[in-house]
Write a structure and sequence with these properties.
The chain is α/β, with parallel strands linked by helices. The chain is 41% helix and 15% strand. The chain is globular.
Length: 227
């Protein structure tokens, strides 16, 4: 049996810890490699290098949220067969006016549970997932998260996506309250061949709806020939 290696790039926390439910749900024939960014690293270029070191021959990159631009960059590597973006973006996902709010004191405040549920996890998320999400975020210093957010607001990988000659899948959560639908439509404008799959779930779609996500990924791999 052919084993397909998937390299998982995490969201803003960068720890990779939150991929546990998704890794556990991986179907037979899929091998997962989780990228864990250094918790003290703020620069996108350094995080890209960290992700690139995890690539293997004939792998597929799955980039969640914050890691979308990094996923696009490393997908150009000859070893990567396809790119999967999950509730992510290829350029600034929100208004530049919000850049002034990306200051470390704001991210040092403990996030209330209702905020985590509304923006990231959904109202039906298991309490254990809420707890692990809060724990993962706390692992990263507030000034690191703030700096990463500021870089996200300046990112623009549209030209890179346009030149990428590989199949692309975008997984979109029906209840994502953090990254707007504009971002997947933006991608579709640049790459009309991109496949967009809508899945019931919040921003952290891979964690809340792992089986549905794997089902979409399996179909995409088989139909696109990415394996």
């Amino acid at each position: 049996m052919t084993v397909i290696t998937t390299v998982l790039l995490p969201g803003l926390d960068g720890t990779g810890e939150l991929f546990a439910p998704f890794v556990t749900a991986a179907p037979q024939g899929f091998r997962t490699i989780v990228v864990d960014y250094p918790t003290d690293e703020t620069e996108i270029d350094a995080l890209e290098q960290c992700a690139r070191e995890k690539l293997t021959d004939s792998c597929i990159v799955i980039a969640e949220s914050f890691s979308g631009p990094i996923g696009v960059r490393i997908a150009a590597d000859d070893r990567v067969q396809a790119l999967i973006l999950c509730n992510s973006f290829i350029r600034n996902p929100i208004s530049p006016a919000f850049q002034q709010f990306a200051i470390w004191p704001l991210f040092s405040i403990s996030i209330p549970e209702f905020v985590l549920r509304f923006f990231l996890l959904g109202q039906e998320a298991h309490p254990a997932l809420v707890k692990s999400t809060r724990s993962a975020i706390r692992r990263v210093p507030a000034h690191v998260i703030a700096h990463r957010v500021r870089q996200v607001l300046q990112t623009d990988e549209r030209n890179m996506v346009r030149s990428l000659r590989k199949p692309v899948l975008y997984l979109r959560g029906l209840s994502d309250n953090l990254v707007s639908e504009r971002n997947c439509r933006d991608l579709q404008t640049i790459r009309p061949d991109v496949e967009i799959v809508w899945i019931r779930g919040p921003h952290l779609l891979l964690q809340v709806s792992p089986e549905e996500c794997w089902g979409a990924i399996q179909r995409f791999v088989e139909e696109s020939g990415a394996a």
